[in-house]
Structures are given as C-alpha cells and as structure tokens.
Amino acid sequence: MLRNRYIVLVEDDEIMGASLAQRLELEGAHVLWLKQMGRAIGAIRTPKKVIDAVICDIGLPDGSGEELFSTLVRTGTPPPFLFITGQGGIGQAVRLIKSGAADYVTKPFDMSVFLERLGLLLGDRENPVRNEDFPALMGISVAARTIEAMIAKAATESHPALIRGGPGTGKDLVARRIHDLSDRSAAPFVAVNLAREASAEDALFGDGAGFDRVGEGTLFINAIGKAGPQIQSRLLDRIDQGFDGRLIAAGGHDLEALIAQDQFNAELFYRLVRTEIPIPPLSTRPDDAVWLMQQLFRKLAPRHGPEIEGISALAEEAVRGHGWPGGGRELRARLLRGLTMAAGPLLQPSDLFPERLADPDDMMSLAQARDAAERVQIIAALDRTGGQIGEAAKLLRIARTTLWEKMQKLDLSGS
C-alpha cells in the first residue's frame, strides 16, 4: 500500500519523527520529513512530485497543524492530511475533519493502528467512493471508512450481498451507494421493505413489482428476516436460476438464530453472506454520531430560522455519550425536537435530551458514566478485532487479563 508513495511528514519531535519516517520507509514510501510549519507550506504548495499524503502533528514550534492546513486550503486543494493529536486536541482534530482533512490519530498510538489509518486514507484516494459526487456516507471514524471501503468493493461485484446492522444504521443508504457506484447505476434501484409490506409475495413477485421492475438494476430487500419460508424458497430459486439484476438484502444480527430455529433458509443465508457489510451501532462510533448530527443540522436548521446558529460543545459531548438505541432515526428525531424547543442560539444538551430535566435523579454517577464509556470502547475494540481479546487489549493499551476482568464486570464476556 505504501510502496513508492510520496509522503510529507511534519513533526518537530525528534524521536517520534525519526520513528515514523523509518517505519514509512521500511514500508516502501518516500518520506520528506519537515519540522516547521513555515517550511512545510512551501514544500506542499510546490512539491517536487505529487504528494500522496501529509502526516502532520497539530502542535508545531512556529504554528499549528490547523494553521498549516487552513493556509493551504485558502490557495488550493491540499493532499490528504492525517493529523496526529493528543487527547486534548481531539475537538480540534474533528473540526479539521469537517474542514476537509482526511483523518486523525491520537497519541499514544500503536504503529499498526497508524498504518491502518494511513492505508485507508491512501486507498480512499483511489476509491470512487471518495469524490465530490459521493461524499462521506457513514462518518469520519475508522469503522465508517472501513464500511465505505467495503461498499466500493461490493460495487465492483455482481453476486448477492447482505448488509447487517441494527435499526437506524443506514442499511438502505449503503445499498443505494453500492448501486450508485456500480455499472448498474443507470438501471433502476428498487427497494422493498418486508417490514412494511402487507404481502411480501406481491411486493416481490407480483406483476409490476420488485423482480418485474428491476431489470438489470438492483433489487434491495430490507428486513430479509421477515421473509416467510415460501418467500425464502422463491428467492433462492431466483438466485439459482439467475436474473439480469442484482440482489442486495439487509437484516439484523438475528439471522443465525433464525436458522437455528428453522425459521430461515441456511442455503439462502450463505448465498447472501458471500459479500457481507456489517454496520456497527452508532453507540460504538461516538465521533460519527457527532458528525451525523452536524450534517443533519446543516440541512434542517435553516427551516427553523437564522437564530439557531449551531450545536454547543456540551451538546456534542452529550451526543457522544448517548447510547442511540434508535440509531440515526433517533438522532434525527432528537435534533428536530431540539430545533423546535431551543431557546438560545446554540443547541444545548437539554434541547436534545429533555428527559434529563424531567428526571434529575436519573443522572449517572461518575462511576456509572465511566463504566458506560469503557463499555463503548471495549465493544468497538472487539468489533474491530473480530472478538479477539488479545488484539482488542492491544488496541485499548491494557493487559489481556485486565480487559477480561472488565468484560466480566460489564457483562460482556459473551461478546
């Protein structure tokens, strides 16, 4: 991934700079290491050759990474920026992401995590999902970028696919993005939600219905777990017989349980799961929750007048800490209610979560808040490592035994 890439490293710390430059060169990259913002501006504006990425510390001796990026943006489109920040600079890094930077990592970080982020960034540059016609769909986290990489790969395929996630995770948006990126984009995209149809058979197989309308396009079947045995059998027959279009299905994480109860056809499941795109819950992606809130705010706030200017930092922290059982749908509903009820120019936590005012005794203790935050991080680490406790412990920078003890305490031992 890094072979023959030209990377500019802007880092004034001798130890970290040397470590990063050495590792990048071992991976096959060509590295220009700079230690000051002033020199970096000239080198990036008038490079000796095309720059594939800029790795930049936010704190620099003659300015900041944010100043460097802002200066470059004023006169052109800079290369993809991967910022390095301490825990105290996360808010600043997120602000930079919203301004067009590609990603950020927080100190201290494992080199494997750093290389993964950089690899995703470089892959995105070649990936059709990252352009003006197709902006970020799921968020700014590593999980979101991984989903978008899966989407881009799925768009190059033609066999059935399965999108899995809880309520409000954007499964329909993912299906539509796959279609839009594929060679089928000029053909129809037909969506059928079995949770809303009185007759699944009529919606899929009736005259002028799903299979009749799709042609060479994409047939998206949401809530596939709601399909009865007869529908499942007919779907399997259609896949086996072949049809001109492509089938994409979506469902929750209960399909294996339905198979065990003889309520879902195992053969159909394995045909669908050949390409699987899992969407982690919003509760494990707090930065994505804030990103989504900001995106929706830009669209919805103008309808409520110019007096509501933005979302307060306290409200953003409340968004990060909420569990979001209803996913994106809940987030949108809370934002709409907040815009209606807001009394000041900035949305406050009480505008988004009025129930906290109604029951002040329902406040978490600090211990409960700490447990809730640890639970979110542990779930995210286990999700990224496929349930490998040792690897998850490395990501969380704790001992394996410590992670296991916390999982027992938080009732995550079955995760």
Count every beta strand, where a strand is a DSSP E run of 2 or more residues.
Answer: 14
Largest sheet properties = 5 strands, parallel
- Widest sheet: strand ordering: 2-1-3-6-7
Give me the CATH architecture of the largest domain, please. Answer: 3-Layer(aba) Sandwich
CATH homologous superfamily title of the largest domain = P-loop containing nucleotide triphosphate hydrolases
Structural class: alpha/beta
Number of helices: 20
Please provide a written account of the structure.
The protein is an alpha/beta fold and 415 residues long. The protein contains 20 helices and 14 strands. It has helices spanning 14-26, 37-45, 65-75, 90-99, 111-126, 142-155, 171-181, 200-205, 210-214, 229-241, 255-260, 266-272, 286-300, 313-321, 327-341, 349-352, 355-358, 366-384, 389-396, 400-409, and strands at 6-10, 30-34, 53-57, 59-60, 63-64, 81-85, 103-106, 161-164, 189-193, 218-222, 246-251, 276-278, 310-311, 346-347. The strands form four sheets. It has a five-stranded parallel beta sheet with strand order 2-1-3-6-7, with helices on both faces. Strand 10 (218-222), helix 10 (229-241) and strand 11 (246-251) form a beta-alpha-beta unit. Helix 18 (366-384) packs across helix 19 (389-396).
Secondary structure: elements and pairs:
Layout (H helix, E strand, L loop, with lengths): L5 E5 L3 H13 L3 E5 L2 H9 L7 E5 L1 E2 L2 E2 H11 L5 E5 L4 H10 L3 E4 L4 H16 L15 H14 L5 E4 L6 H11 L7 E5 L6 H6 L4 H5 L3 E5 L6 H13 L4 E6 L3 H6 L5 H7 L3 E3 L7 H15 L9 E2 L1 H9 L5 H15 L4 E2 L1 H4 L2 H4 L7 H19 L4 H8 L3 H10 L6
Parallel strand pairs: 1-2, 1-3, 3-6, 6-7, 8-11, 8-12, 9-10, 10-11, 13-14
Antiparallel strand pairs: 4-5
Helix pairs in contact: 2-3, 5-6, 6-7, 13-14, 13-15, 18-19, 19-20
